[in-house]
UniProtKB/TrEMBL annotation:
Organism of this sequence: Haptolina ericina
Name of this protein: Uncharacterized protein
Phylogenetic lineage: Eukaryota, Haptista, Haptophyta, Prymnesiophyceae, Prymnesiales
Signal peptide interval: none
Basic and acidic residues bias spans: 1-38
One GO CC annotation: nucleus
GO biological process, one term: chromatin organization
Renumbered residue ranges of the record's region Disordered: 1-75
Keyword terms, alphabetized: Coiled coil
Coiled coil: 89-116
Basic residues bias: start-end ranges: 39-50
Length: 283
């Protein structure tokens, strides 16, 4: 099973789990409400009809019974608050259906956002480009989806560079790839002349676009393009420029652009500025 198939199955499972949780929450809320489906029966009191009136001469005739007044039908009082009464089964089902539809619409919008195409310029650095290309790097353009993870984007770039020739391709036996090079994605820091972040492999392009500096401006600058390199190659050259200006991005931390500018001459690139941690994070 490929990673894309695995990711697709995982998203389907997450979708089903979300729907099941919504149904369970709705059923639980319905059980907790007071049962308003069975109104209490009120005992009806029968009014005694008054007896017949009689006069002195009872033998002549009996008086007719006095007229009775029919009980007045009670209408619904609009001023009474009946919100405490439980909802009937039909209303409960309609409410559950509405909540489920809201969840479906939300998941559908999320999927549309993930499928939205994204065009990225890239720079690829590796031991092969260092040896085979005049500028030691290869530049190109690739189209991905906003829902792609950093690892998926990096592998897509690596596959795109294989068009350069056999030397740029992984080892193959009988036309089957037997070696998969580990690659990683690097994104430039927004509003910074130098410095970049090594992006976690599971972070998506959508998540990257939502990250901000502590001052509120976008943290990542994707306009100039991304950088992709082989991990083994990076480990060999991380003490030199520009690799020395790359630092791993940590989602639990908040980064300050002001502090970075003040410390950029230290030669460490974007050192995580731990001015604060996000709620629930462990230092």
């Amino acid at each position: 099973m490929s990673k894309d198939d695995f990711k697709r199955q995982r998203e389907e499972l997450e979708h089903k789990e979300a729907l099941q949780k919504m149904r369970k929450a709705t059923e639980k809320a319905s059980e907790d409400r007071p049962d308003g489906d069975k109104p209490k029966k009120k005992a009806k009191k029968e009014k005694k009809r008054p007896g017949a009136l009689s006069f002195e001469d009872e033998l002549e005739a009996e008086a007719e019974p006095s007229p009775t007044i029919a009980p007045k039908k009670m209408g619904k009082c609009q001023d009474v608050n009946a919100s405490f009464l439980g909802k009937n089964e039909r209303e409960k089902e309609e409410e559950a259906a509405k909540q489920e539809q809201v969840l479906r619409d939300y998941l559908l919008e999320q999927q549309k956002a993930k499928d939205e195409p994204l065009t990225l310029a890239y720079t690829y650095r590796s031991e092969v480009t260092q040896r085979e290309l005049p500028n030691a790097v290869h530049k190109g353009i690739i189209e991905v989806k906003r829902g792609f993870t950093a690892e998926q984007v990096a592998r897509a770039v690596h596959l795109d560079t294989e068009r350069l020739g056999e030397k740029f391709q992984g080892k193959r036996v009988a036309g089957i790839r037997v070696e998969e090079r580990d690659v990683m994605l690097i994104a430039n820091a927004g509003e910074s002349p130098c410095g970049a972040f090594i992006i976690p492999p599971t972070m998506t392009m959508i998540e990257m676009s939502a990250v901000r500096w502590a001052e509120g401006t976008p943290l990542f600058e994707l306009g100039p393009g991304i950088i992709v390199t082989e991990m083994k190659y990076y480990e060999s050259w991380k003490h030199t420029y520009p690799y020395s200006h790359w630092n791993p991005y940590e989602s639990r931390l908040t980064y300050s652009h002001k502090e970075f500018i003040a410390n950029r001459n230290s030669g460490t690139g974007i050192d995580p500025v731990r001015i604060s941690t996000k709620p629930g994070a462990k230092r």
